[in-house]
Write a structure and sequence with these properties.
The complex is a heterodimer. Chain A is of the alpha+beta class. Chain A is about 70% helix and about 5% strand. By secondary structure, chain B is α/β, with parallel strands linked by helices. In chain B, helix 2 runs parallel beside helix 11, helix 3 runs parallel beside helix 4 and helix 11 crosses helix 12. The chains are: A alpha+beta, B alpha/beta.
Amino acid sequence: MVRVGSFIFSLFFLFQVASAQTFDQGQALADASLKEKAVWMEKLASDDSEEATRILQYWLDGILVYWPQENRLVRGIKEGRRYQLQDLMTEEALGAVSSREIDRVKTNNSLRSALKQVLGSRQLGSSDRNVRLSAIAELKRRPDYKVLPLLKKREASEQDDQVARQLSELIGLVLLESAEANDQMEGLRRISGGLSPEVKDSLSRFLLNPNLDPGVVEVAQRELDAITRSLMYWGIGQDLFFGLSLGSVLLLAAIGLAITFGVMGVINMAHGEFIMLGAYTTFVIQQWIPATSMWSLLISIPTAFVVSGTAGIILERLVIRHLYGRPLETLLATFGVSLILQQLVRTVFGPLNQSVVTPDLLSGALDINAAFSVTYNRLFVIAFALCVLVTLWGVMQRTPFGVRVRAVTMNRGMASSMGVQTQRVDALAFGLGSGIAGMGGVALSQLTNVGPNLGQSYIVDSFMVVVFGGVGNLFGTVFAALSLGMANKMLEPLSGAVLAKILILVFIILFIQKRPRGLFALKGRAAED
Amino acid sequence: MQTRSWKRTLQSTIFASAVGLSISLAHAADTIKVGVLHSLSGTMAISETTLKDTVLMMVEQQNKKGGLLGKKLEAVVVDPASNWPLFAEKTRELLEKEKVDVIFGCWTSVSRKSVLPVIEELNGLMFYPVQYEGEESSKNVFYTGAAPNQQAIPAVNYLIDELGVERFVLAGTDYVYPRTTNKILENYLKNLGIGASDIMINYTPFGHSDWQTIVSDIKAFGSAGKKTAVVSTINGDANVPFYKELGNQGMSAEDIPVIAFSVGEEELSGFDTGPLVGHLAAWNYFMSAEAEVNDKFIEAWHSFTGDTARVTNDPMEATYIGFEMWAKAVEKAGTTEVDKVRPALYGTAVPNLTGGTAVMHTNHHLQKPVLIGEILEDGQFEIVSATPGEVIGDAWTDYLPDSAKIIADWTAPVNCGNYNIETQQCSGQNF
């Protein structure tokens, strides 16, 4: 009896020991100052056990919590004002407590980056290549010579090409930290041509070292110069991409205006508000279809076209038609309409900005190489602008409607004599231009704040593009939008955003003095009126 | 017959409305009017709308306590719509037409500068709750927000001492506050030995949304071998695309931390703060500050707004302090007359929401603790550094050679907001 009892007792005791954590200084860790926490982290870093890894990982994730009642560290997931606690090792649920009953183990930037380093070196051997890549990227931030043996061991068994290349560059960065000239030379060889900021950063710091071998300095300087030159070229490419993306935004905003201005000579000050309506349409659609899927964006595009197009046709029928031939009155009237539309939106949706979410597919960036990356949302806007352009060209050149629009643009009187119903063409062309502005708004909602004042930010730019490019053909608008976008983006790093805009405006003012009709104006007697 | 009965109806209507109007006017004389001058639309609405709600809450709370001097408080809210000249017009409307006894308002320094001539001409009283660039001390304005020595300088010290930063990007919106603050910081950094090539300064217009080149330039600037940080004085909704672009281009807080002076819990609410974890802000109050008085304030705020998702932030705390001080001073002075309330304000002490005390000094500034916070996943801030005591606001910074000689003191014998101690002269206006 006693034997069985003691056997059961010892089993029970074993059980307790097995489930108890060996790390029992949770309170000290939670109470430690940020500097003391760094010391704790070092201690845990030298401990290879699974428990230490988990503690470090949860600490980095911000879910490491000290539970005074049980005097142990646990996982704590925050839910409102309460924390759901889970066992560190088994993740078994331990119940929910209020935030007052636990002590979260805090962290800050320096601790976080040190934690990432430590965990990075532990994740080098992970079976998931993405985890290995991110571990290597993390370790590149602060190359540590002590990790070299671990890295070399990993290199020997790395199968994946891309990971191996990254690993080689990391080893190169680490070797630069060595005091031996041979190691440094090998390091320089390995990082040669690497364009990531960490490489340039490390090389620059390396060259500040006064105790270097002259031969090493020469090679290092050569590498740095090559990298700097390379980065400069890629930088120009990056700026071109930014210019292209700004140009595509301007294109979408301005092309509708070019059509309405071209067909009817009407200055539509409410054009910016049609863009804004398109952006709000995207927001409304996102309330019904979850924003994370691409579908909400794809459905918003035709919807915005219809919404803004209809608004445009209504505006034309009710207001502009009656003011035909009186450009100043049209300008004033449309200005009034723009104020009405802004206030309408303010009343319906509120004056604050609405958040339009970028779908998952469009978040993040494509890294062509370490120096050149294109963000997906801007790539989408460029592609979208291209599609709109091609479709519009098709409509203008190949459909009967397009022929009629072009005829009315060139010579209204003659077109009317040929049997074209100019009034109907006016209304439909206005609708088309406004509809395209609406689609532009959908694109803009991905890039900027959606608020009642969205239109005001783009109306001036739209007019600049139309005035510069000339009215009458699409090509003028495209050329003007792209060149203004590129010019703006090229000037920005040199003169700052504010001055760049001012210079562009001054340039356009001077340009109009020379060529009042813009770059690609319609030629011919009829076009002169 | 018809005409006469029409005339009769008209006469009686006019009479009735006159009676009604005079009753309401008489009634109006029984309330103390509190003006609220914050942008409720436009680029600054994202920051200022919540301050209007804070004043409304304070007015309601005070009325529950019985009002002031036996009268109820009435809030008069106007919307200057982020339009700076409109701020001046609305101030005139509040003071001349509505006859308010105090104004709680303004955020951007340009709006405050627009208001100054009007408020000094009409001898109004304004409490300004936002951090600003200093270089000003008006007789009619009490500054409950931070001066540069209570925010900008300690923030830069944190970057240098705790994070080892050696290269700085000073990025701001193009108006007086960032321009002046950056001038002060540039001087301060140069005095510490940071070279001019290690400082990059950059300005953007209000509402700027295309941050691609600027963020890419910051990344390039930050890869020169020295630890780099961005000091951001970007205001309003331009912050939203700025932080989005930081996330898109993968600029994390461990590489190049961004410390902001005008971004708090309110600007981050409704934002996906996942990619922003670790970026910083410097304020004198955070919603996560652990103090019982803070918990009570947050509870009252949630029950007033009926929304437990609403956050509190530093300008709200400054509004709260300003309101409490004004109420105390009015009770001490026994009247709402500006010339009597002003002297009653000096030395008024009110508990702040981080467990300390705020006292109004004769330069129209408070003493405040300086807190540095890191953004967390849920949009709250983790306080990573705090000054041991409170720092008294210095209206005229010691780090610009011209301002170092100037002090502000609105009591005798100096009685001046910009008194030059070398020439012993008062230079007068601030605008």
